[in-house]
Structure formats: C-alpha cells, structure tokens
Amino acid sequence: MIIERFHPGKVRMLYERFAEKGRLLPAGVCYLNSWIKEDVSICYQVMMSDSVAKIHEWVSHWNDLADFEVIPVINSDEAKEKIFST
Known about the structure:
The chain is of the alpha+beta class. About 35% of the residues lie in helices and about 30% in strands. It has one domain: Alpha-Beta Plaits. It has helices at about 10-20, 50-60, 75-85, and strands spanning about 1-5, 30-35, 40-50, 65-70.
C-alpha cells in the first residue's frame, strides 16, 4: 500500500506527467486501485510487486512531486494463514 502526499502546488504537474507518460510502472509492479482524498492532497494506492525495490524504483519517477510512504501489506487469507501456521 502506498500513501502518496502531493507536494503543495505540484498536483497539476503530477497529473500532467501522468497524462503524458502514464503510470511509469517498472516490470513486476502491478497497479490495483487508488483513492484520492477529497481535497486532492493525498492518494492511497494498492499495488502488487514481487520486490519492494521495484516499488521504490517506481517512486523515483514521482518523488519530485509527492512524498511516499510504502507500507507492505498482506491480504486477509494470508494473514489468517500466518496466524494459524505458528
């Protein structure tokens, strides 16, 4: 899960880059969905990747326009398996 906090005054530039270049995902990173705070200051994204390093590679394309918090998450079934396998 990614929490993307847009830099003040840079949101328009971010959307313009997205329109011009797309999501700029490296191989091995899959975008699933996102939600934007109503004041368009924060984006919450869910992505899948086999490597946190690839997520940070993606962040490097955008970190001039936003700050990123990368939170590794697992789905409910994986959490249940993790709890009951010990």
